């Protein structure tokens, strides 16, 4: 089992819809959770991070964390074609300095 | 503010050749990382350096060596390149106590092809 798992997609949604991206992790000691966006040929850029169970909202983005289920998700409201990219989930465990990434989910927003 | 700078951006090597990927950050960050990214494999950690003077293996260290030259610079060396090392390499850095919450910041990537 991989430490961080994501569905590779592509996930296709129409413009204006909500895109839901999911990630599961195996290490119960994980404490910090991140969502990065990566456009083709570019480096990953941070969208959001979350530490606590529940929801965290930032503009059109909402990160959701459920530590009991070892599950973190990213919701993108009012999806735009410019949101089309690969979304990477990353997990960090305090004291280890390691960041483990999932393989990413490719999102396509159709105009 | 340049952030994390990697060189070279593109490189073609022949099997058995050696080379060093250079990385420097100007954000006064403590920790630095080298990842490789392959289709369908995501970002995999090669080596990391928690602080100046220390280095540790990540998930896929075989065939690589690293040097944390000082707080700013962290280099990745391929001693004898193999076609399996064809990949995109990303350097990243992180500052302890970063208010963004342990966020790591990436360089622009180095595209390496071994023929």
Please give a structural write-up.
The complex is a heterodimer of chains A (111) and B (115). Chain A is mainly beta and 111 residues long. In chain A, 0% of the residues lie in helices and 54% in strands. Chain A has no helices and eleven strands. Chain A has strands at 4-5, 11-14, 19-25, 32-38, 45-50, 54-58, 61-66, 71-76, 85-92, 99-101, 105-110. In chain B, strand 4 and strand 5 (42-49) form a beta hairpin. Chain B has 115 residues and is mainly beta. Chain B is 0% helix and 50% strand. Classes of the chains: A mainly beta (111), B mainly beta (115). The A-B interface holds A 8, 32, 34, 42-46, 49, 51, 88, 90, 92, 97-104 and B 31, 33, 35, 40-45, 48, 50, 56, 58-59, 90, 94, 100-109.
Number of strands of chain B: 11
The parts of chain B where pLDDT drops under 50 for at least 5 residues are none
Coarse structural class of chain A: mainly beta
Helix % of chain B is under 10%
Summarize this structure as a short list of keywords or feature phrases.
heterodimer, A: 111 residues, 6-stranded mixed sheet, 5-stranded antiparallel sheet, 11 strands, globular, B: 115 residues, mainly beta, 7-stranded mixed sheet, 4-stranded antiparallel sheet, 50% strand
Give a short synopsis of this structure.
The complex is a heterodimer of chains A (111) and B (115). With 111 residues, chain A is an all-beta fold.
Topology:
The complex is a heterodimer of chains A (111) and B (115).
Chain A: E1 4-5, E2 11-14, E3 19-25, E4 32-38, E5 45-50, E6 54-58, E7 61-66, E8 71-76, E9 85-92, E10 99-101, E11 105-110
Parallel strand pairs in A: 2-11
Antiparallel strand pairs in A: 1-3, 3-8, 4-5, 4-9, 6-7, 7-8, 9-10, 9-11
Chain B: E1 4-7, E2 10-13, E3 19-25, E4 31-38, E5 42-49, E6 56-57, E7 64-68, E8 74-78, E9 87-94, E10 105-106, E11 110-114
Parallel strand pairs in B: 2-11
Antiparallel strand pairs in B: 1-3, 3-8, 4-5, 4-9, 5-6, 7-8, 9-10, 9-11
